[in-house]
């Protein structure tokens, strides 16, 4: 008789369509799930429209108008990822991270190249999931992911400036960053104040709306509907002063039904030329979906199945191209909104897709009146929120090697493209990893007085209070090992009053290790708990000091020995709930 799987682990690629309601946490409420799904669907609507528009360069031949591509992707991918995925609350669809790579593929290989590259990426993701490579994605160092995430945010904001400012030159906007900036500078005198004012007002509404605590009405929907009504009442759209989806893409910009599936054209030469871009889509999709799933785990307290999640992402990217969709992955903001509005099972994700489908079937004819300035405002806010700007401010306090990797990946993403950025960033990170590990090797003379651990470091026979949890990290705490601490703490049933991390066997730490440590400290503080570090060596201590992290933990929580750490843990008063 086979033993049952471990808690939180599901068999690889088990379809969820038969268990959408039964797989959540206790206290499942169908009404709450439906309400969460409808709310997330409303949040996804302007994002899907804006991402479809931003992903397709002007003049590109596509079977559907650009706004429709985003909506179709959100519907199909959102449904498949919720039904088949490895996270109960993950919401999938088009995301801003794909915009630069999609623009590159369509510009160089046409829309047929994008469809083929998306399907190739889907096949790669399925293979990665079936071969259980989901955990390997976590080995990508944090400076690389932070660098290209912020680079993508900058690239998106720059790409939206023409619509945000209402600039429309006689010639098309250049795709390359180094050409786009001079083009924008040359056309600054043509800024349309009506479009600019409308876009700025939409940004203000989206950013300030959460202060009203009206969680069930997304700020992006309020801004988009308000801008559309204002343009219609003022007559700006009729005068042609403010571009709309209808004036840009025609009356049929949003179809009133799902398109008929079709198989894309392909040949071996095209497949060969798309291997690099397809791999970039797969890698980016895997990274973003698993990061989103980790965020979902932190919100819900559950554990996702990374391999099942990769297979679901792959299936979504294999199916969407048949209907004219874009690359899709898990969306962090929509996933967070799903949980915050009551979503606890995949049913909410299915309702989110159904909500978008209902909007397409019922209200498609009204979407043509949406101003392009409002769409650009939505994407500018998305870019502002996805960029890790706080990490850029911390650059002077990072180790120079990690800062170099982050800046290199960021610059290559902005100036060139994501494919080059990820490749170069990974190579740099690997070289620096080898260098750093070699630097941590120590050779010392052994005498008859040496001991593996001094008595004050030994835990055996010492009284550890029941509400104190002790973990020991052995070896360099670098980007290849940082995830192990997250995995170890994720298996804890109840968070302790005090967490003691024994670091006397850690010889080196990098930015990814420090980032993982910071995440643990923040989570403990949010629960009213304390983290104590014992026996920390010079290199990790200097790194934490340079980053200003000593004050975050508290100087009193740095202890020289395990005995000192136990004494400190005992002295900390218990915080009443």
Question: Could you outline the blueprint of secondary structure elements for this entry?
Answer:
Layout: H1 30-55, H2 66-84, E1 92-93, H3 99-130, H4 142-165, H5 177-186, H6 193-208, H7 219-234, H8 236-239, H9 245-249, H10 268-273, H11 275-300, H12 306-319, E2 329-330, H13 332-340, H14 346-363, H15 372-386, H16 389-393, H17 400-415, H18 418-440, E3 468-474, H19 482-490, E4 498-505, H20 511-526, E5 530-534, H21 538-546, H22 550-553, E6 558-559, H23 562-571
Parallel strand pairs: 3-4, 4-5, 5-6
Antiparallel strand pairs: 1-2
What does this structure look like?
- With 577 residues, the protein is mostly helical.
- It folds into three domains: 30-153 and 175-386, no CATH class; 391-440, no CATH class; 455-571, Transcription Regulator spoIIAA (2-Layer Sandwich), CATH 3.30.750.24.
- It has 23 helices and six strands.
- The protein has helices at residues 30-55, 66-84, 99-130, 142-165, 177-186, 193-208, 219-234, 236-239, 245-249, 268-273, 275-300, 306-319, 332-340, 346-363, 372-386, 389-393, 400-415, 418-440, 482-490, 511-526, 538-546, 550-553, 562-571, and strands at residues 92-93, 329-330, 468-474, 498-505, 530-534, 558-559.
- The strands form two sheets. It has a four-stranded parallel β-sheet with strand order 3-4-5-6. A two-stranded antiparallel sheet has the order 1-2.
- Helix 1 (30-55) runs antiparallel to helix 13, helix 6 (193-208) runs antiparallel to helix 7 (219-234) and helix 11 (275-300) crosses helix 12 (306-319).
- The longest helix has 32 residues, at 99-130.
- The protein is globular.
- The chain starts with 29 loop residues before the first helix and ends in a 6-residue tail after the last helix.
- The model is unreliable at 1-19, 21-26 and 443-448 (pLDDT under 50).
């Amino acid at each position: 008789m086979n033993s049952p799987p471990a808690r939180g682990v599901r068999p690889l690629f088990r379809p969820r369509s038969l268990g959408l309601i039964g797989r959540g946490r206790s206290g499942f409420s169908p009404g709450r799930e439906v309400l969460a799904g409808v709310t997330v669907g409303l949040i996804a609507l302007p994002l899907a429209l804006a991402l479809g528009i931003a992903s397709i360069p002007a003049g590109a031949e596509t079977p559907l108008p650009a706004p429709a591509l985003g909506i179709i992707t959100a519907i199909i991918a959102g449904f498949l990822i919720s039904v088949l995925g490895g996270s109960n609350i993950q919401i999938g669809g088009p995301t801003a991270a794909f915009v630069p790579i999609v623009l590159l593929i369509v510009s160089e290989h046409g829309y047929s190249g994008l469809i083929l590259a998306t399907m190739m990426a889907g096949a790669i993701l399925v293979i990665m999931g079936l071969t259980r490579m989901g955990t390997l994605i976590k080995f990508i160092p944090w400076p690389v992911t932070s660098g290209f995430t912020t680079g993508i945010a900058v690239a998106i904001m720059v790409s939206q400036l023409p619509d945000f400012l209402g600039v429309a030159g006689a010639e098309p906007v250049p795709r390359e960053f180094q050409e786009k900036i001079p083009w924008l500078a040359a056309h600054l005198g043509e800024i349309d104040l009506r479009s600019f004012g409308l876009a700025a007002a939409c940004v203000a509404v989206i950013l300030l709306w959460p202060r009203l605590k009206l969680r069930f009405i997304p700020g992006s929907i309020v801004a988009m509907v308000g801008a559309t009504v204002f343009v219609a009442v003022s007559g700006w759209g009729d005068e042609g002063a403010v571009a709309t989806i209808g004036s840009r893409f025609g009356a049929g910009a949003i179809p009133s039904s799902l398109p008929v599936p079709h198989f894309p054209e392909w040949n071996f030469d095209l497949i060969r030329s798309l291997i690099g871009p397809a791999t970039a889509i797969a890698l980016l999709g895997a990274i973003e979906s698993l990061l989103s799933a980790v965020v979902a785990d932190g919100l819900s307290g559950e554990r996702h199945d990374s391999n099942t999640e990769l297979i679901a992402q792959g299936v979504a990217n294999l199916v969407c191209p048949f209907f004219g969709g874009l690359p899709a992955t898990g969306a962090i903001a929509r996933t967070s909104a799903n949980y915050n509005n009551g979503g606890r099972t995949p049913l909410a994700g299915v309702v989110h897709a159904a909500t978008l489908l209902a909007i397409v079937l019922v209200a498609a004819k009204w979407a043509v009146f949406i101003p392009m300035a409002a769409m650009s405002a939505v994407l500018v806010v998305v870019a502002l929120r996805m960029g890790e700007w706080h990490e850029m401010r911390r650059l002077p306090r990072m180790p120079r090697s990690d800062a170099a990797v982050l800046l290199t990946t960021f610059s290559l993403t902005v100036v060139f493209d994501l494919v080059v950025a990820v490749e170069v960033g990974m190579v740099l990170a690997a070289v620096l990893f080898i260098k750093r590990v070699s630097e941590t090797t120590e050779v010392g003379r052994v005498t008859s007085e040496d001991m593996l651990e001094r008595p004050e470091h030994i835990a055996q026979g010492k009284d550890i209070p029941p509400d104190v949890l002790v973990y020991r990290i052995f070896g360099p705490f670098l980007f290849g090992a940082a995830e192990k601490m997250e995995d170890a703490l994720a298996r804890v049933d109840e968070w302790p009053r005090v967490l003691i991390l024994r670091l006397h066997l850690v010889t080196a730490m990098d930015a990814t290790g420090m980032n993982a440590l910071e995440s643990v400290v923040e989570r403990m503080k949010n629960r009213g708990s304390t983290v104590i570090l014992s026996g920390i060596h010079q290199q990790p201590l200097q790194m934490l000091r340079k980053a200003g992290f000593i004050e975050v933990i508290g100087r009193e929580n740095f202890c020289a020995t395990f005995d000192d750490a136990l004494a400190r843990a005992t002295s900390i008063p218990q915080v009443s709930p």
